[in-house]
């Protein structure tokens, strides 16, 4: 006799991951399964419920059916309750120390990695620390949503519509700078900005190309507008989803790029010595520490959070003031500013 089975907690996690990421491949990476295995679990869930949960549209876009929407909301509720129950158990019944699971985009890791580790080992109430890799702020928020981590650092621009269950603490305000190969003389840069024309000399060909960081860079539109106004002959020849990768292309003399100031002042010396930073009317954005709201009920976690944010904020302000930022005068009409572009925060 066939016995109808209810969806498992893992299947509910998979359903939530597919809806959260909007992609089978990204959902599989998020929950640590292969794509075929994940698809099989979805099929098993649909079979056990005797209903279709997704409708596949064009370009592999998934849409929830009415039953799918119901079970998605159920999954969100159950997984949130499960996470809250674990926290309650840790704080009321366990004698063990809290376990931290932390993630941040690579560029921000340069500021937080060591400090998180130092604070974790110095606090006897913290029993362990796991660093979880992520490519960008969106990945960090996805993992928080899936309860795979319990704290992280993100660019606040990514928090829009996603911070209802998160406690957000702003750490510092950042902005983009123009990164140029050190081999190009400052006088050439000044001439380029004043004339809006890239020089013909082969050694300065990098000024004809810039790095496009893609849609995951909140300042992308501002960058495109800046190059159209100040260096219209420069084309987005390279596309790279990582700020550090963009910095490496600049260091190799292949292009210029807009990257966060926080990244440039923490670049490894072998890269830092081969690039030059220029202060521009760059995009501005905020960097914040994020964690589920219910973690604010754990005194040891709150103390760790407060100390981490204060220490990193202090370090950033100190190093920002010492940053070797060059300036170019922009008096020519073609070099008028493109206007302030603050990446607003829902953070």
Structure description:
With 347 residues, this protein is of the alpha/beta class. The chain contains twelve helices and twelve strands. The chain has helices at 9-21, 24-31, 35-49, 66-92, 106-122, 137-145, 186-195, 220-230, 243-251, 261-264, 269-272, 299-322; strands at 54-56, 62-64, 98-103, 126-131, 151-155, 166-181, 209-212, 235-239, 257-260, 275-278, 284-292, 325-326. It is globular, with a radius of gyration of 24 Å.
Q: Assembly type of the shown chains? A: single chain
Shape by Cα distribution? globular
Q: Give the low-pLDDT segments.
A: 335-347
Average the pLDDT over all residues and give the rounded result: 85
How many helix segments? 12
**Would you report the number of β strands?**
12
In terms of DSSP E residues, the strand content is 15-25%
First-last Cα distance: 53 Å
Strand and helix order = HHHEEHEHEHEEHEHEHEHHEEHE
Helix content: 40-55%
Category from helices, strands and their pairing: alpha/beta
**What characterizes the major β-sheet?**
8 strands, mixed
Radius of gyration: 24 Å
């Amino acid at each position: 006799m066939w016995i109808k089975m209810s969806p498992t907690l893992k299947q509910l996690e998979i359903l939530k991951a597919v809806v959260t990421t909007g992609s089978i491949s990204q959902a599989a990476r998020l929950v640590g399964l292969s794509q075929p295995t994940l698809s099989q679990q979805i099929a098993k869930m649909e079979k056990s419920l005797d209903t279709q949960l997704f409708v596949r549209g064009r370009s592999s876009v998934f849409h929830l059916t009415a039953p799918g929407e119901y079970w998605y909301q159920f999954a969100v509720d159950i997984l949130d309750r499960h996470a809250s129950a674990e926290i309650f158990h840790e704080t009321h019944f366990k004698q063990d120390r809290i376990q931290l699971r932390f993630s941040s985009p690579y560029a921000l890791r340069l500021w937080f990695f060591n400090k998180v580790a130092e604070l974790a080992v110095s606090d006897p109430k913290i029993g362990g620390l796991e660093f979880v890799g992520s490519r960008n702020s969106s990945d960090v928020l996805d993992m928080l949503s899936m309860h795979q981590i319990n704290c992280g650092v993100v660019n606040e621009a990514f928090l829009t519509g996603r911070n209802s269950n998160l406690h957000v603490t702003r750490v510092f305000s950042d902005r983009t700078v123009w990164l140029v190969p050190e081999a190009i003389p400052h006088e050439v840069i000044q001439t380029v900005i004043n004339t809006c024309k890239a020089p013909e000399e082969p050694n300065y060909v990098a000024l004809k190309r810039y790095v496009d960081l893609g849609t995951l860079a909140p300042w992308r539109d501002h960058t495109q507008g800046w190059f159209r106004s100040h260096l219209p002959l420069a084309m987005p020849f390279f596309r790279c989803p990582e700020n550090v990768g963009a910095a490496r292309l600049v260091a190799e003399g292949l292009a210029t790029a807009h990257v966060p100031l926080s990244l440039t002042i923490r670049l490894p010396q072998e890269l830092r010595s081969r690039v030059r930073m220029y202060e521009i009317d760059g995009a501005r954005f905020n960097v914040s520490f994020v964690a589920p709201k219910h973690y604010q009920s754990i005194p040891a976690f709150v103390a760790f959070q407060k100390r981490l944010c204060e220490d990193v904020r202090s370090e950033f302000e100190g190093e920002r003031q010492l940053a070797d930022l060059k300036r170019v005068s922009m008096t020519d009409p073609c070099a008028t500013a493109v206007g302030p572009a603050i990446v607003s925060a829902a953070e």
